[in-house]
Amino acid sequence: MKTKKAKLKLVKDKNVSLGMVLMQARTFIALFVLTIAFTLLLSDKGINFLSPINLVTITKHVAITALLGIGMTFVILTGGIDLSVGSIVGICGMVAGGLIHKGLVLPMFGVTIYYNVWVIMLITAVIGMLIGLINGIVITRFNVAPFIGTLGMMYIARGFANILSGGSTFPNLQGKEAFNNTGFQFIGAGKILHIPVSIWILLVILLISIYVAKKTPLGRYVYAIGGNEDAAKLSGIRVKKITTLVYAFSGFCSALVGIIIASQLVAAHPATGETYELSAIAAVVLGGTSLSGGIGTVGGTIIGAFVIGVLADGLVMMGVSEFWQNVIKGVVIIAAVIFDQLQQRMKAKAAVATITAEKESA
Amino acid sequence: MPVTRTDEVILSAEGIYKQYPGTLALNNVDFKIYKGKVNVLVGENGAGKSTLMKILAGVEDPSSGKIYLNGKEIHITSPTEAAENGIGIIYQEMNLFPNLNVSENIFITREKTDKTGRIDSTYQDNYTRGLMEKLHQNIDPQALVSSLRIGQQQIVEIAKALSQETEILIMDEPTSALSTAEVDILFDIIDELKTHGVAIIYISHRLEELLQIGDYITILRDGKKVAEDGIESISLEWIVRQMVGGDEKEVFYDENHTIGDVVLECKHITLPHESGLFAVNDVSFTLRQGEILGIYGLMGAGRSELLETLMGVHPEAIGEIYINGKMIKSTRIGERIRDGFALIPEDRQREGLVKTMSVIQNMTLASLFRLAIKGVHLKRSTEEAEVQQLIREMSLKTAGTEVLVSSLSGGNQQKVVIGKSLLTQPKILLMDEPTRGIDVAAKGEVFSIMNKLVQKGFSIIFVTSELMELRAISDRILVMSKGCLTGSFLKHEASEEALVKASAVGHLSTNQRTK
Fold this sequence. Notes:
The complex is a heterodimer of chains A (about 350) and B (about 525). Chain A is mainly α. Chain A has helices at about 1-15, 20-25, 25-45, 50-75, 85-100, 115-140, 145-165, 185-190, 195-215, 215-225, 230-235, 240-265, 275-285, 300-320, 320-360, and strands at about 105, 110-115, 190, 195. The longest helix of chain A is centred in the last third of the chain and has 40 residues, at about 320-360. Chain B has about 525 residues and is α/β, with parallel strands linked by helices. Chain B has helices at about 50-55, 80-85, 100-105, 120-135, 150-165, 180-195, 205-215, 235-245, 305-310, 335-340, 350, 360-365, 370, 380-395, 410-425, 440-455, 465-475, 495-505; strands at about 10-20, 25-35, 40, 65-70, 70-75, 85-90, 170, 200-205, 215-220, 225-230, 260-270, 280-290, 290-295, 320-325, 325, 340-345, 430, 460-465, 475-480, 485-490. In chain B, strand 7, helix 6 (about 180-195) and strand 8 form a beta-alpha-beta unit. The interface of A and B includes residues 12 and 295 of A.
């Protein structure tokens, strides 16, 4: 038994070259390099990039992209894509804002119901999930390509976000004591153990997601569906059900982001979340998840989200113009994919080498 | 029996060897092709037919050997060169672009352009129309290929080959997807081509067909040429004997195992097919515990569909299934797995394996319902223990359980698929062509695994196209043809002739041709 293990290790060592290790950790290395670079560059200007306050601020920004990215990771792992997350952020913010600001108006009864903010958040989360569920049903039961199905939902949800307020903002979401609906700011501005609530939310969702992805049949099924849908089906996996679930989860994550942003701004604007879907996809891709499905990790997405966040905040602090920020972001994303392709090729080469070695030894 | 006729040899291959990593696909093969004749090439799967054709078509290079065209030695290193030498090939899988029209397909990569570089569609369409008239076919040059029936698509392939002034036309299983009427049309076209002096190389598994259409026959077995003769002097039995060989190889042994009570009973299994016919037509049979039941038939006989129906892949199927006397009511694949069925699919890569996942993840994929604690939590050690045990039992060669399944060799990948189905703790294993595409040694191992399994009390239904394997390992053999059960044989009464005959029921309706 002992010799067998040693032999296995030997085989592994032979194939995993230093280059491969560096490639696999490339996003992490990029994050590391970026952080050091900004720390050095900004220290010249007398700014401490690594100050706890600054790090918390960056993490708060990252949490938005990361939460959307987690939902997106599962979607992309199944081989799909969700373009509607930004719009779901928008409509969910408007739902939460509307329920606090205007209450639920029931004209036929002549009454307006004001809910407790916790109930409102629950309703909002459920609505986000339902929108995702519709995405999933459209994609799996009506055979609409994920790109098209969620593109349509992107317009629909954005449209409804505007319809809810006639295009205007719901301001002053502090709530009123009289309606017993105060306390909404807690999510955006509150802290638990000196750490902002939004970061706690990210942490909880992250831990649950990593557990599901790594340690449950559900997670395994998601990977299998993206890797080979036919084989997954023949293994008894209910492909449609699980795919639908994954889109619902993405909708749920988007709803959380909608609530967080509305709470941070203490206002809900219907255009909130525009182009967020693209940052989320970028984070997923930077994190090493394959757009063709089956390969990737939630942890990678978090690192990807941090790369985007650190880059964005660092460039702002450096005083780089918004236009150049976009150029740099784009370059980073493309570079990430090029590295990904290189890594795939190295892997393929290593695999061929293994087979040849196996053949020769046999 | 030497060939004594005096037809003109147009192409001859001499002493062809082809070495692949691990296998010698062709071993000193000679092959003569006569002008204006149908030169039939037969052999079991893996005998080397396709390799030989790929060499003639310039897709593969021979390891050694010479090819003579009209007595002059030629070297064919690419399909383009083959075409220049007048050699055309129609592959088993269609090589047409369904999104382009007929004449665009025929002129693909050889488009006729005017001075400005614009494609001269009028010329192409007219030329195509002329070709179709020559073939006596009414196919519109501007029709999209996707709108044509399979038989018509085949005719487009033939027309495409002819448009390149083909003198030697290779047809690899041209009738496998054709209806009887379409086969008749194809045979008429072949007659037409013969009168124009085109030499045809014809590969088919439908042996009766060969007797009808063929002029010369060459038989390959295990990469060697074992016989050649004129068709008029031979019989079906002779072909089968030559194909299979007198000596049964020792790798295909069976071991004693006891057969118990009926474990599976199927009544009137019927699966409608989109064509309006039935893929599986009122099939009833029983399977006993510890029994290996072989199912034989030609391509499209409904064998795979029968296994898939048992597995719950086709919820629209009707019929009754009883396991240990209890009727099965479930309709989903996942539920059928729990009922005790496990399918080892025909196409491993496409249906059996998730290439992006590791060996261990592939093997446990269908059993997570059983392995997960309370259906939720996966414990690494539980998975590892069960997988390790199977790896040992099946002597699966892998550099650990964590390596990607795609890094394994074909035989070992097959073992992963078998292991995956065993981990579901099935009662009945459904194996669809379990030895396809793996080398002889790996085949032997797969059979020994099958023998071990039945000794342990599993029951196996397996589908194969290889007669020798079938007869060696099955306790009982069912034969299917066109969705129906056309024969049932006990091991000792299943002769090759009887099996072939039963597999051809319903296929003999092509016009008997006069020479």
